[in-house]
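Question (not urgent): is this output format expected?
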Amino acid sequence: MQFLTKTFYFCAAHQYGHADWSTEKNLEVFKEDAKVHGHNYTLEITVKGEINPETGFIIDLEQLRVVVEKNIIDVLDHAQIEKDITWFKDKQPSSENMVLFIWETIEPLIKDVTLHRVRLIETPTIKTDYYGPDRC
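Got this back:
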């Protein structure tokens, strides 16, 4: 079994909070993150599979690139996540929820290998990993 990780980049904004809470309560709970702010995200998609003896690869990287760019990067890049993406209705736009969204979106579209990990790097000190619903 081999593992391969491909890296992608996007910029997006988000704001934590609850519409039915007061401004004061949102600031108390979410601090500065209760204000709209953005990040330059790094997304790592790791797949696992067997090496194809004819190609020497476990996946066609172009196929992986197209799946991720069309379904994730083109959707998240320059979005305000909680406002622009329906999946986040009634969910906080946290990196924990973002990796779930990414997994659920691309896992059924990746062929011939298994999605192993989604890693979202929000800042140099915040990295969120998700290994799928069966490994939590």
